[in-house]
Specification:
The structure holds 2 protein chains of 2 kinds. Chain A is mainly beta. Chain A folds into 2 domains: 45 residues, no CATH class; 68 residues, OB fold (Dihydrolipoamide Acetyltransferase, E2P), CATH 2.40.50. Helix content of chain A is 8%, strand content 40%. Chain A contains 1 helix and 8 strands, in the order H-E-E-E-E-E-E-E-E. Chain A has a 5-stranded antiparallel beta sheet. In chain A, strands 2-1-3 form a 3-stranded antiparallel beta sheet. In chain A, a hairpin with a 5-residue loop joins strand 1 and strand 2. The longest helix of chain A is centred in the N-terminal third of the chain and has 10 residues. Chain B is α/β, with parallel strands linked by helices. Chain B has 2 domains: 139 residues, Peroxisomal Thiolase, Chain A, domain 1 (3-Layer(aba) Sandwich), CATH 3.40.47; 219 residues, Thiolase/Chalcone synthase (Peroxisomal Thiolase, Chain A, domain 1, 3-Layer(aba) Sandwich). In chain B, helix 2 packs across helix 3. The mean pLDDT of chain B is 96. The chains are: A mainly beta, B alpha/beta. Chain A: This is OB-fold domain-containing protein. Chain A: Pfam families: OB_ChsH2_C. Chain B: InterPro entries: Thiolase, Thiolase-like, Thiolase_C_2. Chain B: It comes from Paralimibaculum aggregatum.
């Protein structure tokens, strides 16, 4: 954690890492607990000893939906909740497969892709 | 503390306004109209109102705007917005303020012209770490929860559709309900898909509408023209704001608010004569019947089978037709509450207006009204009872 409030906060740091092509999450040094989304303290217990660690990128689809959209507006797209191997859950999109073919329990891998015009973590089906 | 509140306050008046479409009227006008109607129902003058509770998606400081429009000076007001559970939470706050002697007459109100103003109005800012993926909230969040529920418990789209079919059957008995006419499971599952597994008919209506109810302490309530309906139990809980942060997609905080509200009331699920739960989407009813203890987790699909929650079934649920078929002006909790109370008033012989055969539940004395806000996030449970249940 930064002691200087003029330094970037957790969200700014996360997005700066993303811009460098890195998917970083937080980890509490004392408890070992991983945290996502980026916060100033471990949710529920309040430890502030959060370091940044590279996410393994391995995950499992916890829930999935296909948002239906007219083709001329971009077509259908996937929105999923992914359980990261480290523990936290995040919203993301699964790519490389039809948006309505994503299944709960599917193993996925993180990529730095793009969403809403900015770098974003997206997932693709895991190989092997 | 909670026990001292039990039954100490009662609803003595209620009204709705502009249900369905109210072209030409703004949200404040509709809300004020409901307040005036509720006070007339209670035979309490506007000038006697010293407690005011309101939250909408149209007013950042709704209680202040409403007080100004009405020309009153509340001694205590609250505009806390926990979405569609706000009405129940405000009822609890009102009971606390009444019991503490801070106020003598509380009005709890909501108003919306979302339908004629151009469609669903979200009160929400974009969710950080979610917005970039384009969730179409609230429906995407509820769809994600539904997908998980179906995966864990083997529920089907037909099970979800049965909720909408039951709601429509109740609506068909209620002339005040916006949607009327037959509805089949096949029509629900065959409707245009919005966000898998939820189609258009798994979703609540988008209507205009306002609702208000008046609460006083039990002693004063006896002097009002209508049967006082007492707030026997109330509890709230929430644990997330974003669906990605919901601890379990298949268990809501109703599993906590429900038991606390029942404990305060001294009654349990089996004793509820009517059950009103916020059905923003078909999945809601299944989750809340489980979390509130009417059946075990994962068993709601079997519980509602055979028309158990439909007219003529074993448990009257969402007897106005619900948010799915009666009315849904954005934050529907106030209407849930009013239906719970009206069922008790009607059973006691009150003139609540015409309903089809079985639309009013005979001998209803205890009603549950459960509110839900955000994306299955805030939960508020209330238990309302006839004076004889005190």
């Amino acid at each position: 954690m930064s002691d200087d409030t003029r330094d970037p906060g957790p969200e700014a740091r996360f997005r700066a890492y993303l811009a460098e092509g890195r998917f970083m999450i937080q980890r509490s040094a004392s408890t070992g607990m991983h945290v996502f989304y980026p916060r100033v303290a471990v949710p529920g217990s309040g430890e502030t000893d959060l370091d940044w660690v590279e996410a393994s990128g391995r995950g499992t689809v916890h829930a999935t939906t296909c948002n239906r959209r007219r083709p001329e507006q971009g077509g259908d797209y996937n929105v999923a909740l992914i359980d990261l191997a480290e523990g936290p859950r995040m919203m993301a999109r699964v790519e490389g497969i039809a948006p309505d073919a994503v299944r709960i329990g599917m193993a996925v891998e993180a990529r730095i892709g793009e969403a809403d015009g900015a770098p974003a973590v997206v997932f693709v089906p895991a190989e092997g | 503390m909670a026990q001292s509140l039990r039954g100490s306050a009662a609803c003595v008046g209620l009204a709705t306004a502009g249900v369905g479409e109210a072209p030409g009227r703004n949200a404040m006008e509709l809300m004020a109209e409901a307040v005036i109607g509720a006070l007339a129902d209670a035979a309490i003058p506007l000038a006697a109102v010293d407690g005011l509770f309101a939250a909408t998606a149209f007013h950042s400081m709704a209680a202040m705007s409403l007080a100004e429009h009405l020309g009153i000076r509340p001694a205590f007001s609250d505009g806390s917005n926990i979405g569609g559970a706000s009405g129940m939470a405000h009822a609890l706050l009102a009971a606390m303020a009444l019991e503490a002697g801070q106020i003598d007459v509380a009005v709890i109100a909501y108003g919306s012209n979302q339908r004629t103003a151009g469609g669903f109005r979200s009160v929400s800012e974009p969710m950080p770490f979610e917005a970039e993926y384009g969730p179409r909230n609230p429906i995407t969040a509820y769809a994600l929860a539904a997908s998980r529920y179906m995966h864990e418990f083997g529920a089907t789209r037909e099970d979800l559709a049965a909720v909408a079919v039951a709601a429509r059957a109740w609506a068909n008995l209620n002339p005040e309900a916006v949607m009327q006419g037959p509805l089949t499971v096949a029509e629900v599952t065959g409707a245009r898909m919005i966000s898998d597994p939820l189609g258009k008919l798994d979703c609540c209506l988008v209507t205009d509408g306002a609702a208000a109810f008046v609460m006083t302490r039990a002693d004063r309530a006896r002097d009002c023209p209508h049967l006082p309906v007492h707030l026997l139990g109330a509890a709230t809980e929430h644990h997330h704001r974003m669906i990605s942060a919901m601890p379990s997609l298949t268990t809501t905080a109703a599993a906590a608010s429900g038991p606390r509200a029942f404990a305060m009331a001294g009654y349990g699920p089996a004793e509820m004569d009517t059950v009103q739960v916020y059905d923003a989407f078909t999945i809601n009813t299944l989750l809340f019947l489980e979390d509130l203890g009417f059946c075990a987790k994962g068993e709601a699909k079997d519980f509602i089978g055979g028309g158990h929650i439909a007219p003529g079934g074993g448990l009257p649920v969402n007897t106005n037709g619900g948010g799915l078929s009666a009315v849904h002006p954005g934050m529907y909790g106030h209407f849930v509450t009013i239906e719970a109370i009206r069922q008790i008033r009607a059973a006691a012989g009150g003139a609540e207006g015409p309903r089809g055969e079985g639309g009013w539940i005979p001998s209803a004395r205890l009603s549950l009204a459960h509110g839900n806000g955000g994306v299955l996030a805030s939960q508020a449970t209330t238990v309302w009872g006839h004076p004889d249940t005190l």
